[in-house]
Amino acid sequence: MTHTLHIVGGGMAGSEAAWQAANLGIQVVLHEMRPKVETFAHRTGDLGEMVCSNSFRSDDHEQNAVGLLHWEMREAGGLIMDTAYTHRLPAGGALAVDRDAFSAAVTAKIAAHPNISVSHEEITELPSEGHWIFATGPLTSEALGAAIQAETGADRLAFFDAIAPIVYAETINMDVAWLQSRYDKGETEEEQKAYINCPMTKDQYEAFIDALLAADKTEFHEGETAKYFDGCLPIEVMAERGRETLRHGPMKPVGLTNPHDPETKAYAVVQLRRDNALGTLFNIVGFQTKMKYGAQTSVFKTIPGLEDASFARLGGIHRNTFLNSPTLLDDQMRLRSKPNIRFAGQVTGVEGYVESASMGLVAGRLAAAEILGQPLASVPQDTAHGALIHHITGGAEAKTFQPMNVNFGLFRPLDGLKGGRRGRKDRYKAYTDRAKACWTDWLATQKELA
């Protein structure tokens, strides 16, 4: 039996899987085709590159399911979370990072690990021998995608994932905009002022919606269908669902007071979140878009405070492929038809950086244990990791399977707790307490592996 684990894809999931397996004593070859073979969304050849947002979302591990995932990953010595904490930026209650420093650090840590080697050759087939994890994410290459489709015997499922634009901070008019996190969230003044806010009156909001709806957009190819993930909808798609949709979504004005005009309540607010440690770049929160570049600059410059904005990156759109995991993967994340292969990350049908990395963490540990001849028990369903795995490998309805963020709706209910909004705080705390105990016990069973 070979003790080498091959991992395809050097994003969040692949990098985390390599780190976990290598720390358990397994020799790992991490196959990342970039920069030799480029994608249209990536800018570098670095591992763990953040293509969309620079946020890992909420860091609250007692009242938020994604914050609980953060906690579980850190308890497991997770590469992605530990690196994120090292390069975090003020973002209120969220965990945001300097994306370039983050990916450079992930790359350096992988390169320095004695049990990991990196290959930049493209993998285009599903091997029948050896131990493999495929974590190629939403931008799986055409050749490999065809091989996966041929093996699974099913059409690849797809939706379109959009990228938010990034603005140079020095071009934002701070005589109009102001610094404040929603509800002044954060323990330090820096965190409480982590966002730039651009206010709109009702007339300005209506004009913005009109411009958004009329703008030129990227067209889909003939015969191509779009199934958007609701957590990453392009703003123009949200606007098409109703003129007030954005004002109750990413442009909601609640929890904010404009110091330039404290007596006037904004009708809508556009928020920008710091994107790098220098504070020179800010991304427009929730503003994923499929508008054409020329349309983006003209529409976004109608936002008060962004009239003279310059953009470091405009928004974009890409096809996102994922498996129908409930029909294809077992509870050890193995492909049923080729059990020498595991899948991890976004390609399994989870959505988000944190969820993708968490699936890599589990896949790396499961594969390492199997190679060492000490297979692990399935991840406890009452943990955040286990709730996700249960959902994608059998808990979801296969006919309507769509990518899913971690959320408390995936957790098994606890008896004796009040339902509804009023009981939510106690209920969520009970979920996280139970999850932490189960996760700690599961990790304890693995101390003798390495």
UniProtKB/TrEMBL annotation:
It is an enzyme of class 2 (transferase). SUPFAM superfamilies: FAD/NAD(P)-binding domain (SSF51905). The keyword ATP-binding does not apply. One of its GO terms (molecular function) is tRNA (uracil(54)-C5)-methyltransferase activity, 5,10-methylenetetrahydrofolate-dependent. It is found in: Cytoplasm. It catalyses: uridine(54) in tRNA + (6R)-5,10-methylene-5,6,7,8-tetrahydrofolate + NADH + H(+) = 5-methyluridine(54) in tRNA + (6S)-5,6,7,8-tetrahydrofolate + NAD(+); uridine(54) in tRNA + (6R)-5,10-methylene-5,6,7,8-tetrahydrofolate + NADPH + H(+) = 5-methyluridine(54) in tRNA + (6S)-5,6,7,8-tetrahydrofolate + NADP(+). InterPro entries: FAD/NAD-bd_sf, MnmG-rel, MnmG_N, TrmFO. FAD binds at residues 9-14. Keywords: Cytoplasm, FAD, Flavoprotein, Methyltransferase, NAD, NADP, Transferase, tRNA processing. Coiled coil: none annotated. One of its GO terms (cellular component) is cytosol. Residues 5-374 form the MnmG N-terminal domain. Gene3D superfamilies: FAD/NAD(P)-binding domain. The keyword NADP applies. Its main location: cytoplasm. It comes from the Bacteria. Its EC number is 2.1.1.74. One of its GO terms (biological process) is tRNA methylation. Its cofactor is FAD. It holds the Pfam family GIDA. Belongs to the MnmG family. TrmFO subfamily. Catalyzes the folate-dependent formation of 5-methyl-uridine at position 54 (M-5-U54) in all tRNAs. NCBIfam families: gid_trmFO, PRK05335.1. HAMAP family: TrmFO. This is Methylenetetrahydrofolate--tRNA-(uracil-5-)-methyltransferase TrmFO. It comes from Sagittula marina. The gene is trmFO.
